[in-house]
Specification:
homodimer, about 190 residues, mainly alpha, 10 helices, DNA-binding
Chain lengths: ~190, ~190
DNA sequence: CCTTTTTGTCAACGATTGTTGACTAATCTG
DNA sequence: CAGATTAGTCAACAATCGTTGACAAAAAGG
């Protein structure tokens, strides 16, 4: 499926294999514990290729950690559904990691001990989360509201996907949408 | 408090210096990026002493990461203040890191990429957070309620102290107690 | 003062890390 | 098919890691 109609220069395959392996391992173990050799082994090629194609471990991480939250426009009419909408969106983004996205676990794993990853998360917040939340309430409280939303959503991701706290990991999606959605709704709109 | 009246065998000083240096560096950089040599340098002694006194890097981490949340009894009469009480308690615990505690930043930094640290956080949740929350509502939903509380409180700690997300780091304590307290209150009691 | 135990330093080990350059195999171009 | 470019492998490098054992300095005990 998704067959490349155009001619594959044959190297694109391995490039993608490296990216996939890196994404998987970075998300699983974080930046520090993931070695270039592990990535190469998982991609089935030589460690030297990782450096030749991406310039180094740092550059590869920067490429793999690119993340587009694809936040929906929250300025719509149904302003009382903002919380549920947001939570549902994030759940779909995180759960369906197989899709194009999947950069979030990578960042979350690494941001705790890697300042570059943390800075990238701050960028994502400033460029994507903040503007989206800003439209859902008074501008003067936009930063605070967006910050509170981030604290809840990142906390959910942390406890559910990284720490795998049993009661949180066991929650079904609809419960999360209902409970956490109510919180996000209150944070986003400021009551 | 708890002053050692007995004579100091002179080595206790260095033991404490190692523990302090380790606590500081583990909290700053996480487990993986903190080296035994860095700890020794900060404590002003030889790296070999770290191993001799604590057996190894892992054992030192385990000792330093010990954490007692000292959660207050939430079974009291004022059940509508549980949220604010909890948030205030955690803020005091995290903010006053200089005190005896301060194990939380250590764990939070490392748990993202260190399975042992993650397991320790799960233990703390199970042994301390869960029982405290269980008394604040119906037993059959205790796990879910405690999990949601943890997702919000750990998310707050993550965004405020680890990621240092500007709007969250800038929040004053009273605002946090009010806003996040309301959320925790709802999670803890199940409405 | 001599002996014993504790406290500390020093150098080095084996393993692992990211990275590099030389070399071979494959593929493309004419 | 001949030549050139690309894809890939291999061994090794320098650096750093946690850890160890031999040894010196200092304190303690008689």
């Amino acid at each position: 499926m998704t067959e490349p109609r155009r001619s594959t220069p044959k190297s694109i395959r391995t490039r993608q294999a490296i990216e996939e392996a890196a994404k998987y391992l970075f998300a699983l173990n974080g930046f520090e514990r993931t070695t270039v050799r592990d990535i190469a082994a998982r991609a089935g090629i030589d460690p030297a290729m990782v450096i030749r194609y991406f310039g180094g471990k740092d550059a590869l991480f920067a490429r793999v950690a690119a993340l587009d939250l694809r936040l929906p426009d929250l300025g719509g009419a149904e302003s009382d559904m903002i919380g549920e909408t947001l939570v549902r969106h994030f759940l779909a983004l995180w759960e369906g990691e197989a899709a194009g996205g999947g950069g979030m676990p990578v960042l979350l794993r690494s941001a705790a001990s890697n300042e570059e990853a943390a800075a990238r998360l701050r960028d994502i917040f400033r460029e994507q989360v903040f503007p989206a939340i800003a439209r859902a309430g008074p501008p003067e409280t936009a930063a605070q509201r967006a910050g509170l939303v981030a604290s809840q959503l990142l906390g959910l991701a942390l406890t559910r996907y990284v720490l795998k706290l049993p009661p949180v990991a066991a929650l079904d999606a609809e419960t999360i949408v209902r409970e956490v959605g109510a919180t996000v709704q209150r944070y986003a709109t400021g009551h």
